[in-house]
Amino acid sequence: MSQNNDAVIERLRAASRAETREFVPHIRQHFRDVTVNGGSDWNLSLYDLAWVLCTDFLTEEERERHVTELLKAQNADGSWGEAEYMPHSALVDTLAVAMALVRLGHPIPNLRKMVRRVDWLFAAAQDYKQHDTVAFELLAPALLKWLEENGVEFKLRAKTRAYVEEVGEKGKRKLHMMAHGPGLFNPRASLSYTAEIAVFMSLSTEQVRLLPRMMLPNGAIGLSPAATAGVIMLLREHNLDVPEGLYAYLEDTYRAYNRQGFPDLYPYSHTQRLWNIVPWLLSGNISRLLQDGETLSLLVEMYQDIYFDEKGRVSWDANNTDLPDLDDTSVGFALYATLIGAGIQGLEPRSSSCFRHFQREDGSFFCYPHELHPSPVGNLHALMALEIASEVFGPEFRDDPENRAYEWNLLNDLAPDGRSLDELCHDKWHASWTYGAQRWLSVRAVHETYPDTLNDLLHLILEREQRGGWGQEEPTLEETAYIVSGLVRLLRRQSPPLEPAMREEIERLLERSRVFMLDEIARPTIRIPHIWISKNLYTPMCQVASAILDALLSLNILEPVPFQ
């Protein structure tokens, strides 16, 4: 863990010990770090490092150092990465590291163990019932095939081999869909984030010559070190000039991470700012932050750093504004409405018409065009934004036919239709049901539309509680924070009304959660697992800390207000 993340942990500890009047400064400092100091999260990705090692970017000394680090990072079972939450993550990490070692002419240590583990990881991925990691259907089959063609023999069981072929066919369908949409390698397409897949495609020299057209203003391909490295590799293989901007992006990223490695995505300033605010918007605790003048000023500054395109849409970062998404757009609009409600003047007017650009012809919503999997949390964030805007702008906004139609279609996308609660709560960006559960607990429209689902979810939460905490596996601080904030939001709203027995049980449960969270924060080492989904799993530490701080305030650990 880096000094960046160590500082975040220490702030959580200090906040948990603070008196009521001392808590706001900790929140204020958290947002100051995100806004003024950049708030860089420390996420070193084995997958991305492996791809960069295959280029001529690093010095010989740096390459040797990182190879040594990779060899030390190999698990006892022969794999790389973590499989606790999703086997897919360890699978792509393992295959990418193996590819890098083969390309560098370095023997793969514990090869037999690795081969057996890859078979197991594929089988575990087949049994996994939720979302795959990003572009798994493209990367895993392609990496495996390349390794087999380059001398690594995988003795996969017949069932496993059939699954790999099935996943590969899914990847081909995605490529076909992208080719007939924006084009395979277009900066407006989400595939640009996975442009390294081009290394495994039979591209002509003329096609490779066009790949640098994907370069963003900061020189990146898809804001991804791996994608950028993949394009460099292809240009070199075809004896073509490599634009200096590609190397400049890798250098900027490497320097930002103290030359210790590479993250899965960099930069992502819009998402980083907005996702530090999401917990407070969902819980309603944003109203408490607005009462502190300095924190309000920081929130305004965070908002003003976000670029909205001419249609009111928002993307991950100012460098990839051609790839907006429903999630970031929804939270951006929610923050706008919140600041207007706080009396902030001079903001450029925003409209809910931004949501229109994420609708298909049948009225359903997408997070990104041409996506294979929907994002239920994207819909829930859009409903949250409409709810906040209705509170700020009143009946004229709430009763507008277009806004009512947005709400109806968003809710229709979320219809249970026989889906399990795990299916409803799991999102493609997070590997825990608790992340989606907080949204279901916090958004009024889904309570009113699907009361039976809410009731079932409450019973599931009671069943899955462990020592006052929750988790996809063992209870963790982050996952518990999501459930705590959602439950407190539900209690304070008194809508829908809960049965007295259920309300009392939730209040007792929250007391146990208070103890669990404080005990976890007091541990010498706080367990914050990699549970956010990219090509592999990662931890956006500042965002996680924001969720935990919000839950602490929701529990009234630091501000004893009776539940109401």
Overall description:
Helix 1 packs parallel to helix 25 (about 540-555) and helix 16 runs antiparallel to helix 18. The chain contains 25 helices and two strands. The longest helix is centred in the last third of the chain and has 23 residues, at about 500-520. The protein has helices at about 5-15, 20-35, 45-55, 60-70, 85-105, 110-125, 135-150, 160-180, 205-210, 225-235, 245-255, 270-285, 285-290, 295-305, 325-340, 375-395, 395-400, 400-415, 420-425, 435-440, 445-450, 450-465, 475-495, 500-520, 540-555, and strands spanning about 530-535, 535-540. It starts with a helix and ends in a 10-residue tail after the last helix. It is about 60% helix and about 0% strand. The protein has about 575 residues and is an all-alpha fold. It has two domains: about 5-40 and about 265-555, Glycosyltransferase, CATH 1.50.10; about 45-255, Glycosyltransferase. The protein has a two-stranded antiparallel ribbon. The model is unreliable at about 560-564 (pLDDT under 50).
